[in-house]
Write a structure and sequence with these properties.
Number of strands of chain A: 12
Largest interface: A-B, 35 and 33 residues
Distance between the termini of chain B: 18 Å
Oligomer: heterodimer
Strand content of chain A: 25-35%
Order of helices and strands of chain A: HHHHHHEEEEEEEEEEEEH
Order of helices and strands of chain B: HHHHHH
Structural class of chain A: alpha+beta
CATH architecture of the largest domain in chain A: Beta Barrel
Largest sheet of chain A: 6 strands, antiparallel, barrel
Radius of gyration of chain B: 15 Å
Chain lengths: ~270, ~170
């Protein structure tokens, strides 16, 4: 007993070091489940608050760019409206609008964003109070951004395409073939599309869209453009996709709320 | 007492500077200056080892919480805090460290501080970046990131000695 105590006393610093290092490694090993734990949820409130305070300055500096973006979007919407109103007669309009609507968008601002890490995350200034919950899709004006990982009362953490844990089912526009979009941690501008079988012809420059297989995103949201492809191993292509969203200059995004998400989820769970 | 308060204030200041300023300073996707190591580097020589370890742990946790990373900064920071006393012994000038001095350029000169900073920063970044990737598949590209980021962090830290911590 005495020798044990002496041992502990002699190596107390080393033992403390081992203990602290073990705690840290445990966090790492738990990975994304750590992200969902209660402590982190509480922390999200605190860090979100600090980030949103400082963000005011950043937002002011970027006002010009945001303005231009809004003008462009406005123009595009107006053009689309003109096109529609020309060809629609009022009965169609009425039947379109009386349909129970499926998706609802929550406009939101990014308060914190990382781009150059392996596991990037985005913090939004909308949370449960504003109707942002886990597993909702997030898009920008240019294309897909990510999926809400977890939300607290006033903030939400989003796992963007440029995170190694991100997976999404997408399809190629021209031939409708679906594959899995992943990110390999190199450049925030590109992602990789897998599981497209080798016998298909890949149209370079074609658009990649969401497949609509999951209830998170509606079908046909732009994800990126095929930049190049290779057939290195196995029977599948490695397709390099240039992402439509520029994560480095992202300020405003929309969170998609799908009113039928639960219904679809329940059905799918029951089958399983 | 004065030294203690100064270190506590420094603890919070380096975290805030890191997450609010430095994380936005990223150069071509490879380099992030991790200046929060300044807190570790400037800790007084006589600080008890267990306080060094615990404060290193809390510093790492603080950065991890803001960066949304699980434990990576904590692991790397605790590691360099553990190594630091041995390194200081190794780098000690012939007649040892004088009392009432701190590990700074002002007392021990540019060469000594550069060596000290570089070794700590490289060990920290090596551990951090490989933990982040958590596989040896991209060994070389990660190594490149370690080297480039280390250069950036070390030079930012050394420069700060001339502009912020002059005395």
């Amino acid at each position: 007993m005495k020798t044990l105590l002496r041992f502990i006393q002699k190596y107390s610093n080393f033992l403390l070091f081992l203990l602290l290092e073990t705690i840290a490694i445990t966090f790492i090993a738990q990975g994304s489940s750590y992200q969902k734990s209660r402590i982190i949820g509480l922390n999200r409130q605190v860090t979100g608050y600090i980030f949103s305070k400082v963000d005011g300055a950043r937002e002011y500096l970027s006002l010009k760019g945001v303005n231009q973006q809004l003008v462009d979007e406005n123009l595009e919407l107006r053009n689309r409206l003109d096109r529609i109103s020309g060809q629609m007669d009022s009965t169609i309009v009425i039947s379109e609008f009386t349909k129970p609507y499926h998706y609802f968008y929550v406009p939101s601002r990014i308060v914190h964003n990382s781009v150059f890490k392996q596991y990037n995350y985005i913090t939004l200034n909308k949370g449960k109070k504003q109707g942002v919950f886990k597993d909702m899709g997030v898009i920008s004006d240019h294309g897909l951004v990510g999926i809400v990982l977890e939300s607290s009362r006033n903030f939400a953490t989003v796992i963007p395409i440029i995170n190694r844990d991100f997976r999404l089912s997408v399809k190629i526009k021209s031939n409708n073939y679906a594959g899995i979009l992943r990110w390999e941690g190199e450049s925030p501008l590109y992602a990789v599309l897998n599981e497209i079988p080798f016998h298909l012809e890949i149209p370079k420059g074609d658009t990649i869209l969401t497949s609509g297989f999951s209830s998170i995103f509606p079908e046909g949201i732009e994800v990126g453009i095929i930049e190049s492809y290779s057939l290195e191993k196995g029977n599948f292509y490695d397709i390099r996709v240039k992402l439509s969203t520029n994560f480095q200059s992202l300020f405003h995004v929309n969170v998609i709320r799908n009113y039928k998400h639960e219904e679809q989820q329940n059905l799918e769970d029951r089958i399983r | 007492m004065y030294i203690l308060t100064r270190n506590i204030v420094r603890f919070f200041v380096v975290i805030l500077i890191q997450v609010l300023v430095m994380d936005n300073v990223m150069i071509n996707g490879y380099m992030v200056p991790y200046v929060y190591l300044l807190f570790i580097l400037l800790m007084p020589f006589e600080t008890p080892r267990w306080i060094q370890l615990l404060s290193g742990f809390m510093l790492g946790m603080g950065i991890d919480l803001f960066e949304n990373t699980p434990g990576m900064h904590t692991a790397a920071t605790v590691m360099v805090v553990f190594i630091r006393p041995y390194l200081l012994n190794l780098l000690a000038p012939r007649d040892g460290y004088e009392s009432e001095t701190f590990p700074r350029i002002h007392y021990y000169g540019f060469h000594w501080f550069l060596k000290y900073t570089l070794i700590i920063v490289v060990i920290h970044h090596f551990m951090l970046f490989y933990l982040e990737v958590f596989q040896l598949k991209e060994f070389l590209s990660t190594l490149l990131r370690v080297i480039l980021s280390s250069i950036l962090s070390a030079s930012t830290i050394v420069l700060s000695q001339y502009f912020v911590f002059r005395k």
